[in-house]
Amino acid sequence: MAGITIDRIKKTFGAATALAEISLEIADGEFLALLGPSGCGKTTLLRIIAGLETQTSGRVLIGERDVSALPPKERGLAMVFQNYAVFPHMTVYENVAFGLRMQKADETTIKREVERAASLLHIEPYLDRYPAKLSGGQRQRVAVARALAVRPAVLLMDEPLSNLDALLRLEMRSELKGVLQQSGTTTIYVTHDQTEAMGLADRIAVMHGGVIEQIGAPQTIYERPATKFVGGFVGSPPMNFIRMPVAGGRAALGGFSAPCPGAKSEIICGIRPEDMRIALGRSGLDFKVSVAEPLGSTLLLTGKVQDQLIRVAARPDSGLKAGDIVALEPEAQRIVWLDSETGRAVGA
Amino acid sequence: MTNSRLLPYLLIAPSVVFLILLFIFPLVQTIGLAFTDQGGASLGNFRKMVGDINFGVSLRNTFLLVAVVIPLQIGLALGMAVMLQKMEKGRDLVLWIWTIPLGVSDLAAGLVWLSILQDRGYLNSTLFALGVIDSPTNWLSYENPTALFVGIVLAEIWRATAIVLVILVAGFQLIPKEYFEAAEVFGATGWTRFRKITLPLLKPSLQSALILRTVLAFEVFAVVYALGGRNFPVLVGEAYTWMRDNQNDGVAAAYAILIMVISLAATLVYIRLLRTKPEAQA
Amino acid sequence: MSTKRFLYLTGVVTLIAWIVVPIYLIAIGAFSGRAGVFRWPKSLWPADASLQAMQVFMQIEGVWNAALNSVIVAALCMLFSVLLGAPAGYALARFSFKGQTAYRLLIVLTRAFPLAILALPLTVNFIRIGLYDTTLGVALVHTALALPFAALVSSSLFMGIPRELEEAAWVFGCSRFQAFVKVVLPLALPGLAATAIFAFVISWNEVFAAAVLTVRERTLTAYLLTVLSESPLHFRFAGGFILIVPSVLFIFAVRKYLFAMWGIANR
Fold it and tell me: How far is CA B276 from CA A128, B175, B281, in A?
């Protein structure tokens, strides 16, 4: 088991910067998710940690060991790939045993470890089969078992669930969490799916444009996004951003007014769709509903507040429909105030 | 990985060295040979080549063969590819049979058709049985140039249509079926579909098939030789004769240069005529 | 059955016959010997066929040696093409490096040239270095024909093997070479075998260079070409038939790969 230190890692492709001096500490046994849209650099960072790509500058330390210049095989880690990368010409058993064989483990150890990993992932019945005979979900299990069989100090996962269908993904997600909690392996998990990151990780690092926008516990990321990007990327539907003029330390729009930090004449009020109450007959933000989508647990309303598009999650029995005009009352303590120019959180 | 910068060069190096020694080097030498005569730079070899009585005939024959054979092959291969497209049962078997000539050398193909077209061959036997002729007739002689030409064309089409077919079928596989289905949904008939969807999307494949076939067709030699000996002179055959029988490397090299220039010109013409914009490719 | 369907089936059957019947006919010619060739009018039934005719052909002075030479040359060509072409294909598939475009151009350029004709100046060089009239010399020239093909096809083969598989092997403890041997090679092997067989067929069928570069150590094609004008018909048919048989078998063996190979080799 080992922690990981990413020290000012930079990666450029010609003139394009993929990673701009990223530094990151991952504690021993921690599960960190790298979350971001495609092209944000999360996979590049993971591949640099694995040694599959060479950084332009900076260092990677695993445990106390500087592995920056070592080939992948000498870094003592395991990886689960997006397309599983299960070897098609080997049986499931041989796939799971692959890493151990490369370490020249003896046959009894191999058998013991393969069976342990196989039982963790419930793939014992398939050990003699070839991957071509397995479903996507089963191949995914083989890939994870192969990684766990070597009892790695560090486990890297690159969008491991993205090729599974929705139901299977949900199932694998909770199972993965259970297995990894049990083994206590330091894990870096790359994903673009915020629910996956929220559900699995101890901490999430949200990446955008080659930099880490925010790093923190899932709930913190969700409730107190450090930037407009994080608020918009995490959560579905995303956070609403409502521009409001500021006068005398208070932001006011329509019938709504609240004290706000900063001294600029305009501010962005970041508020999640579920953090707005519908204030029938009282004063608040005038919200004109243009679309109402019943989602079962909530009624998702899309509409405008003074020409600004926002979404509100109302109670399913609220009976609102397109064309209705209601007053909205954001919960004051749930508001995140953001600078209208930089998009960064202010105050708090 | 530390050595990954050098590795690709190490991997291609052997083949580069090889191609320099056996492609670039002889190419330069051929040019050298063709343009030197009696120790000095001269156009003597070309003069000798052009002055030979067989030169004009072989040039005309070669072009004639290319002009007749290639369009027929493309048409036939397109037809076969479309037929295969519709086939449900037995497609693999039919495809295999149609591609058998791929493995048949031009010499063997010439001999195959010799067995059919010789004076006591199967063609004459059939014609005899039908009462068209009453005794063996020699089709493959210089007295009968048209028949000889037709025989060579048949043998060439028989032998070398397979490669065009393979390239086109491979091209067909790259065209998503949805395009045809979409066209059908919008009411395009079979012929319109062929003209508006198949042909344009097949253009890159057609281009490579044309280039490959044309270059090879200008090299035509053994088929002709097997069927008609020197009764039907072609360019490569002349090069071979100058080399083997007249022991004159210079003129042979001049023929080689001529064939190369024609091949390159044909390639360039195809590339220009059948240019596809990269963004319009399937 | 509709008229359209009838026409379609007739077309398919006619084209099958168009390919198969001539091969059948030369086979009869090859096995019927002198008597069969001069029979008039001929029947489509192989009345005169016997193995004896073929035996007689194989015992003719030079035939056996030429056939053997053809096999040696083709085998060498196959070996060289794959050994030189596959590494280049791997480099093209897995790396982006300076000069890649130039290399591809060199490969593609060979297609626009009638390569066999380049055997002409090689006679002089080969005489000088002792390669003239040897199977090795012919094999080298044939390799120049087959190598570009082998490089392009193997590059597409390697591209078809996900990079992730190799990376997984590296992560789980393989060096680059080990990963290639344990993961890439087993997966590429059938395709490489098909490429090799194709190289064999290219060499087996080549006439011009083989005829120019040999005098005594002739390949079968070169031998047949040079004795063509003075040999009897049944002899030519036997030779033609023997030329056809291995190629047809080989094409059958690699039929699965034919289209994938040409599809990508032509882009």
Answer: 50, 15, 7
DSSP assignment letter at C132: T
* A178 Cβ contact partners less than 8 Å away, ≥ 6 residues apart: none
Place B172 in a pLDDT band, splitting at 50, 70 and 90.
confident
Q: H or E stretch including A285?
A: strand A285-294
Phi/psi for C86 (5° steps) reads -65, -45
Of B4, B86, B107, Cβ closest to residue C221: B107
Is the Cβ of C172 closer than 8 Å to some Cβ of chain B? no
Q: Which residue in the set A78, A88, A89 is minimally distant from C172, CB to CB?
A: A78
Q: Which of B35-49, C162-176, C198-212 has the weakest average pLDDT?
A: B35-49
CB pair distance less than 8 Å for C172 and A146: yes
Chain C partners of A85 at a C-beta cutoff of 8 Å?
162, 164-165, 167-168
Question: What is this structure's pTM?
Answer: 0.84
The yes-or-no verdict on residue A87 having pLDDT over 90 is yes
Structure tokens at A31: 């599960």
Q: Is residue B203 part of a domain?
A: yes
Task: Look at C173 and A78 and tell me if their CB atoms are within 8 Å.
Answer: no
Residues A63 and A175 in one domain: yes
Q: How many domains does chain B have?
A: 1
ipTM metric: 0.88
Query: Do A68 and A144 belong to one domain?
Result: yes
Q: Which backbone phi and psi does A271 adopt, to 5 degrees?
A: -145, 135
Domain membership of residue A45 (yes or no) is: yes
Which residues, at least 6 apart from C71, have a Cβ–Cβ distance to it below 8 Å? none
- Give the span between the Cα atoms of B105 and C224, in whole angstroms: 12
For chain C, the domains span 1-39+46-59, 61-265
pLDDT more than 90, % of chain C: 45
Chain A CB contacts of C164 below 8 Å: 81-83, 85
Same-domain pairing of A223 and A288? no
Does one domain contain both A178 and A264? no
Q: Is residue B38 part of a domain?
A: no
B240 belongs to a structural domain: yes
Residues of B within 8 A of C267 (CB-CB) are: 204, 208
Cross-chain Cβ contact B1/A54 below 8 Å: yes
Residue type, A343: G
Distance from CA of A25 to the nearest CA of B (A): 24
Do A137 and A63 lie in a common domain? Answer: yes
Q: Which strands, in side-by-side order, build the sheet including A4-13?
A: A16-26, A4-13, A57-62, A65-66
- pLDDT at residue B1 tops 70: no
User: Any chain B CB within 8 A of the CB of C45?
Assistant: no
The answer on A271 and A133 residing in a single domain is: no
Whether A134 and A197 map to the same domain: the answer is yes
The 10s digit of each residue's pLDDT in A259-285 is 988 878 899 999 999 999 887 666 788
Higher-scoring residue by pLDDT: A111, B131: A111
- Number of other residues whose CB lies within 10 A of the CB of residue C43: 12
Structure confidence at residue C267 (pLDDT)? 45
pLDDT of C68 reads: 94
Residue of A nearest to B5 (CA): A54
Contacts of B174 in chain C (CB under 8 A): 263
Number of Cβ pairs < 8 A linking chain A and chain B = 5
In a domain, A344, yes or no: no
Q: Which residue, among A229, A159, A232, A222, has the nearest Cα to A190 in the 3D structure?
A: A159
Q: Are the Cβ atoms of A69 and B2 closer than 8 angstroms?
A: yes
DSSP-assigned beta bridge partners for residue A330: A276
Find the domain containing A26 and state its range.
4-228
Contacts of A71 in chain B (CB under 8 A): 1-2
Closest chain B CA to residue C234: B115
Number of domains in chain A: 2
Q: What is the pLDDT of residue B279?
A: 57
- Is domain C61-265 annotated with CATH 1.10.3720.10? yes
Rounded to the nearest integer, the mean pLDDT of chain C is 87
**Considering only residues 151 to 170 of chain C, which have any Cβ-Cβ distance to chain A shorter than 8 Å?**
162, 164-165, 167-170
